[in-house]
């Protein structure tokens, strides 16, 4: 499903996304990041990738 770190997929992006959400939304940032992960579990990666 998701690419490994350094393979050109989502790997490194997850860390950056989590950091950004936690910076912008403080206490709610972790919850927002988990919501992104839940969306990926429910929807096709190609669809989610087009939204980046």
Strand-helix topology:
Elements: H1 11-25, H2 29-42, H3 45-50
Please describe the structure with a list of short key phrases separated by commas or semicolons.
single chain; 52 residues; mainly alpha; 3 helices; disordered N terminus
What report would you give on this structure?
With 52 residues, this protein is mostly helical. It has one domain. It is built from three helices and no strands. Helix 1 runs antiparallel to helix 2. It is globular, with a radius of gyration of 11 Å. The protein starts with 10 loop residues before the first helix and ends with a helix. The N terminus is likely disordered.
Q: What is the gist of this entry?
A:
The protein has 52 residues and is mainly alpha-helical. Helices cover 67% and strands 0% of the residues. It is built from three helices and no strands.
Global morphology: globular
Query: Which sequence of SSEs, written as H and E, runs from N to C?
Result: HHH
**Secondary structure: number of strands:** 0
Class of secondary structure makeup: mainly alpha
Helical amount: 55-70%
Q: How many structural domains are formed by the residues?
A: 1
Instruction: Report low-confidence residues grouped into runs of 5 or more.
Output: 3-8
Radius of gyration: 11 Å
Beta content: under 5%
Largest sheet: none
> What is the CA-CA span between the terminal residues?
16 Å
Mean of pLDDT: 80
Q: How many separate helices? A: 3
């Amino acid at each position: 499903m998701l690419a490994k770190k350094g393979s050109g997929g989502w790997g490194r992006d997850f860390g950056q996304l989590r950091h950004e959400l936690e910076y912008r939304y403080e206490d709610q940032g972790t919850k927002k990041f988990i919501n992104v992960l839940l969306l990926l579990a429910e929807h096709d990666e190609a669809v989610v990738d087009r939204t980046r």
